[in-house]
């Protein structure tokens, strides 16, 4: 019936730990259409167009003269996310400019994979927004991310995305279970 | 519809009568009608069924469907014979329609349409009729009985009292439904043919209702319980509403504790949309639209005597689905600790003006976890209650078990 009117649906922001995020290598589009979203394939087996991360901003750097942009490092219990915000992300850039590390921050952004000429991969988050939060929010995020990661691992092998993750990454679910366990163990009761 | 499914259905019908058929032949006959001759699938099904019935000298299936059916059980795509009472007649909206209304039996009710070209006799309100070989199809998502030139209508000498069965609001489907419900809200009428519109509720939920201006139609009274029989249940943009044009309604005694069919969601606020924070509203009565920065209302133009309001349009994301949410002033004040008065003062004393309020509200909620519940309308959750999520050590323990337990 009115399927064509089905309104635009925003892509959900996936919860993912840093040590899984940095393993991303594969990005793809569903259709050739210019406007179709770009997805990164997470090793735990789900496509991801946006991420939500909470951690500690440990350092930030202003770079560039003409085209100013900011880089930052956000640390979670498993590792480090690299975040960027340039003139195409004015909201995030202004927010990041104001925040003094160290601080707990919540970052919403898009995954970005860059392959250097010598074959190394740089995986980062192009931030849409960065805001200061508190420790409790960080702890809630660790639980949330642990739950979502376990959900993905439980469904591993049963979904199309997880089968292609198996193909590209040779994911071993028990490795990621261990990562989840270690992350949770760092949260204080 | 898949032709092999149709072929299977036909074959089963024939086999139920003791004859045997070749499914592939049935399907190829169907395919020939549908693909070569452009025949509608429902019509092709009828034709093939009839042909097979004739070949096997069977009677009582297909187009000669004289088997009496319960109205509750008919589904779109069928040719049916029913017996029922005319419980509502509505004005025809088009010259090609002779009559429309609702016919009911003890199992349920269905809307019907008599085409002018059918040349059928007009049916009278309150009488029983036997309708043979009518077609059930779907109109705006609801089953609808079509009376065409091949339909036979005969009036019956019968007057059984019909007691419509009442459906809980949460279980209504497009079509015809009867409810026992309380009128809980009356909304502004937006159309000059509309008599009244508002919200009805029962223990299971709420639904919008509309009464159009017609002879003999009366308004419902607020906070009164009604028995509403044979209302049309319409679906528009995924939401149901009750049209009382076909209905009879009488006030009933007693009260109903109205249940709210609320949607609840827990997640992080990942985006604050423009138009959040301190806004100006049009002061014209019944308008309430948001004014632009230049105090311009899309309908009433420049309005210098605007009212201030606070709201939050944002996205609550649980990692699997991003939901648009809308929080009204009271909740925004509670979550951010900034009252409307504070916000107006901030806006008037700060060089950034209203933007400063936006930034402060954003700083207070962006990236944090909340549980929101409310009514979902047109893809947006209108939030009634919103609470910050608190850290729960039991949850941590459960997740540790889940992660550790299966790793070994």
Brief description of this entry?
The complex is a heterodimer of chains A (189) and B (408). Chain A is α+β, with helices and mostly antiparallel strands and 189 residues long.
Care to describe what's here?
The complex is a heterodimer of chains A (189) and B (408). Chain A has helices at 18-21, 90-98, 135-154, 160-169, 173-185; strands spanning 13-14, 27-29, 38-42, 46-48, 50-63, 69-76, 79-85, 103-115, 121-132. Chain A is an alpha+beta fold and 189 residues long. Chain A has one domain: Nucleic acid-binding proteins (OB fold (Dihydrolipoamide Acetyltransferase, E2P), Beta Barrel). A five-stranded mixed barrel of chain A has the order 5-6-7-9-8. In chain A, strands 2-3-4 form a three-stranded antiparallel β-sheet. In chain A, strand 6 and strand 7 form a beta hairpin. Chain A starts with 12 loop residues before the first strand and ends with a helix. The model of chain A is unreliable at 1-5 (pLDDT under 50). Chain B has 408 residues and is of the alpha+beta class. Chain B has four domains: 3-64; 71-155, Nucleic acid-binding proteins (OB fold (Dihydrolipoamide Acetyltransferase, E2P), Beta Barrel), CATH 2.40.50; 169-252, OB fold (Dihydrolipoamide Acetyltransferase, E2P) (Beta Barrel); 263-388, OB fold (Dihydrolipoamide Acetyltransferase, E2P) (Beta Barrel). Chain B is built from seven helices and 20 strands. In chain B, the strands form four sheets. Chain B has a five-stranded mixed β-barrel with strand order 1-2-3-5-4. A five-stranded mixed beta barrel of chain B has the order 7-8-9-11-10. In chain B, strand 15 and strand 16 form a beta hairpin. The longest helix of chain B has 15 residues, at 41-55. Chain B is globular, with a radius of gyration of 29 Å. Chain B starts with a helix and ends with a helix. The model of chain B has no long low-confidence stretch (mean pLDDT 87). The interface between A and B is large, with 43 and 35 residues.
């Amino acid at each position: 019936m009115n399927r064509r009117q089905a309104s635009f649906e925003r892509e959900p922001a996936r919860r993912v730990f840093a040590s899984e995020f940095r393993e991303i290598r594969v990005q793809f589009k569903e259709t050739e259409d210019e406007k179709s979203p770009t997805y990164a394939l997470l090793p735990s087996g789900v496509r991801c167009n946006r991420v939500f991360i909470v951690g500690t901003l440990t350092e930030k750097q202003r770079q560039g003269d003409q085209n100013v942009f900011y880089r930052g490092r956000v640390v979670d219990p498993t590792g480090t996310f690299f975040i960027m915000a340039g003139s195409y992300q004015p909201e995030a850039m202004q927010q990041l400019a104001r925040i003094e590390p160290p601080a707990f921050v919540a970052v919403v952004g898009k995954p970005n994979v860059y392959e250097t000429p010598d074959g190394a991969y740089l995986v980062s988050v192009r931030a849409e927004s960065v805001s200061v939060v508190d420790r409790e929010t960080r702890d809630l995020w660790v639980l949330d991310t642990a739950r979502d990661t376990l959900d993905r691992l439980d469904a591993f092998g049963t979904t199309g995305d997880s089968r292609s993750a198996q193909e590209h990454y040779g994911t071993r679910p028990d490795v990621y279970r261990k990562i989840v366990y270690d992350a949770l163990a760092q949260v204080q009761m | 519809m898949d032709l092999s499914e149709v072929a299977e259905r036909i074959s089963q019908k024939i086999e139920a009568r003791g004859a045997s058929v070749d499914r592939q032949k049935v399907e190829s006959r169907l395919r020939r009608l549908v693909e070569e001759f452009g025949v509608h699938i429902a019509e092709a099904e009828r034709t093939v069924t009839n042909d097979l019935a004739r070949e096997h000298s069977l009677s009582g299936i297909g187009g000669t469907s004289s088997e009496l059916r319960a109205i509750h059980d008919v589904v779109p795509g069928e040719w049916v014979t029913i017996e029922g009472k005319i419980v509502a007649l509505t004005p025809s909206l088009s010259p090609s329609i002779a009559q429309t209304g609702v016919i009911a039996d003890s199992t349920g009710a269905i809307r019907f349409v008599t085409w002018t070209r059918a040349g059928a006799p007009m049916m009278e309100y309150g009488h029983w009729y036997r309708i043979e070989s009518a077609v059930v199809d779907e109109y705006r998502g609801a089953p609808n009985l079509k009376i065409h030139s091949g339909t036979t209508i005969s009036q019956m000498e019968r007057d059984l009292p019909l007691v419509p069965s009442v459906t809980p609001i949460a279980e209504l489907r497009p079509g015809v439904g009867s409810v026992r419900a309380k009128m809980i809200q009356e909304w502004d009428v937006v159309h000059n043919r509309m008599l009244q519109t508002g919200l009805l509720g029962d223990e299971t939920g709420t639904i919008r209702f509309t009464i159009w201006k017609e002879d003999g139609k009366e308004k419902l009274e607020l906070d009164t319980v009604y028995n509403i029989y044979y209302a049309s249940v319409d679906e528009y943009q995924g939401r149901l509403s009750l049209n009382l044009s076909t209905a009879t309604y009488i006030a009933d005694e007693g009260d109903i504790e109205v249940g709210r069919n609320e949607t609840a969601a827990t997640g992080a606020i990942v985006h604050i949309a423009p138009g959040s924070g301190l806004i100006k509203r049009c002061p014209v009565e019944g308008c309430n639209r948001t004014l632009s920065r230049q105090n311009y209302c899309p309908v009433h133009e420049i309005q210098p005597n605007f009212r201030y309001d606070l709201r939050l349009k944002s996205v609550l994301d649980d990692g699997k689905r991003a939901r648009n949410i809308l929080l009204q002033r009271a909740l925004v004040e509670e979550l951010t600790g900034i009252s409307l008065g504070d916000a107006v003062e901030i806006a008037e004393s700060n060089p950034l003006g209203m933007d400063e309020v936006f930034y402060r509200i954003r700083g207070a909620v962006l990236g944090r976890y909340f549980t929101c519940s409310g009514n979902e309308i047109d893809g947006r959750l209108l939030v009634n209650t919103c609470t910050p999520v608190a850290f729960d050590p039991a949850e941590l323990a459960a997740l540790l078990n889940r992660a550790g337990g299966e790793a070994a």
